[in-house]
Amino acid sequence: MPLITVDDIKNNEEVRTFLIIAEKQMEILGYTEHSFRHVSLVSKTAGRILDTLGYPEREVELTKIAGYLHDIGNAVNRTDHAHTGAVMAYNLLLRMGMPCTEAAEIMLAIGNHDERTGTAVNNISAALILADKSDVHRSRVRNTDFATFDIHDRVNYAVKESAISVYKEEKTAELVLEIDTSICPVMDYFEIFLARMTMNRRAAEFLGLHFQLLINGSRLL
């Protein structure tokens, strides 16, 4: 049987259904966008991170799959979505014909991607964390009434550009943000995302990298 690829995952009706239902719930709860745009970007970015660092092609593909599936647990409930989604992904991948050894690595990564309960525990999870936590951008804010923005809306909306890059020779992972400080002071960013930046640092270290954060051209970490 051919190996499962990220394209197989993207074309799976059950996966599409999970992401559609998850996005409906997240919108009702008032969260930022977590659906097709987000998971597609995380999948691509996480795969690029391991590919740039020279990891095996199959491990890169599994990382892309983990990135695409990492938020399907939101179809059940936002609380514990990482753990729920990990089990959902494992069972789905087995039904699709993936070997349990590969499915288990993806399960492990998804189960550890949330900053409240997880940390980098394998290469896939480290790349997934770096990709997921770097996706901060105004396009994710659904609230159109600026007067009713809470701090999460302001922080996300203030970010005009965000990009994570890894440099194999320099052994660094660099997150570069451009923030409109008239909307959100840099300090507010740290208030909301300090736990995520700590998680990024640990994920980078797992891959043998030093994590760096640049905001508006200034290096803060």
Summary keywords:
alpha+beta; four-stranded mixed beta sheet
Structure description:
- The protein is of the alpha+beta class and 221 residues long.
- Helix content is 54%, strand content 11%.
- It contains nine helices and four strands; from the N terminus they run H-H-H-H-H-H-H-H-E-E-H-E-E.
- It has a four-stranded mixed β-sheet.
- Strand 1 (159-167) and strand 2 form a beta hairpin.
- Helix 4 packs across helix 6 (100-111) and helix 6 (100-111) crosses helix 7 (123-133).
- The longest helix has 21 residues, at 186-206.
What is the count of β-strands? 4
In what order do the strands lie side by side in the largest sheet? Answer: 1-2-3-4
Give the overall average pLDDT: 91
Largest sheet: 4 strands, mixed
The rounded Rg comes to 17 Å
**What is the helix tally?**
9
SSE ordering = HHHHHHHHEEHEE
Q: What structural class should be given to the helix and strand makeup?
A: alpha+beta
What proportion of the residues form beta strands (DSSP E)? 5-15%
| Unreliable runs | none
The best one-word shape is globular
Helix share bin: 40-55%
* First-residue to last-residue Cα separation: 46 Å
